[in-house]
Amino acid sequence: MSDEGVDKIISHIEAEAEKEISEILLKAQEEADKIRKAAQDKAERQTERILSNGRRAASLEGERIIAETKLDVRRKRMDAQEEAIAASFEGAKKALGELAEKGKWDNFVYKNIMFNLIGSASEVVAGSKLELAFNQRDSRTFNKRMLGELTTFVKKRTGRDISLTRTDKAIKCLGGAVVRDLEKQVEVDNTLEAKLNRLKESIRVDVAKILFGDRL
């Protein structure tokens, strides 16, 4: 085979090889493009998922913060309302103390309140011999004459023949009285503090409505 023939064969082989190489390279390029596109698509999906998760997490976090803020505001408002209600009862206690000390506060007369407190307690205890315990100030006020007047009031209110005596041992309170049944050893604490404490739960809603109206 001549050199020229060899060259042609070699050239042909090289041409075929180049063609194959070109095809291989083209296919490799296409595969690379597919791989790159798939990777890019995957990356974009992952990115979108991450962003979506981030947005959802941010939304949930935002909702959590809003919910906590609303709860905190509600808690603070309730605390403020409770403080206002407590302050009202403290104001009432102070007014009762002033009423008991001076005998009158606004349109309230202490003597009338005392008679009603002792009368209502006497309705609860069933005995006919009752003992009254006062603080030192009221022990001096409820002398023999006042006890006589009170006894008449209690008899009329209860419809029973009741005798009232005053204990010599004073109790510590703003005012009011403890009424004891000497026969059955039963007593009713109708001191001003005890009465106010018993009223707290039953009238606190009314107090709140007066203070806050529709803002409850």
Please describe what this structure looks like.
There is one protein chain. The protein has a domain at 105-215: 2-Layer Sandwich (hypothetical protein PF0899 fold), CATH 3.30.2320. The chain contains 5 helices and 6 strands. The strands form 2 sheets. The protein has a 4-stranded mixed β-sheet with strand order 4-3-5-6. A two-stranded antiparallel sheet has the order 1-2. With 216 residues, it is an alpha+beta fold. 73% of the residues lie in helices and 12% in strands. α1 packs across α5 and α2 packs across α4 (144-158). The chain is rod-shaped, with a radius of gyration of 47 Å.
The CATH topology assignment of the domain at 105-215 is hypothetical protein PF0899 fold
Structure class: alpha+beta
Query: How many helices does DSSP assign?
Result: 5
Give the mean pLDDT. Answer: 77
The share of residues in helices is: over 70%
Oligomer: single chain
Spatial sequence of strands, sheet with the most strands: 4-3-5-6
Report how far apart the termini are: 112 Å
Which outline best applies?
rod-shaped
> Low-confidence spans: pLDDT under 50, at least 5 residues?
1-10
Q: How many DSSP-defined strands?
A: 6
Rg (CA only): 47 Å
Query: What is the C-level CATH assignment of the domain at 105-215?
Result: Alpha Beta
State the fourth-level CATH superfamily of the domain at 105-215: ATP synthase, E subunit, C-terminal
> Which architecture of the domain at 105-215 per CATH?
2-Layer Sandwich
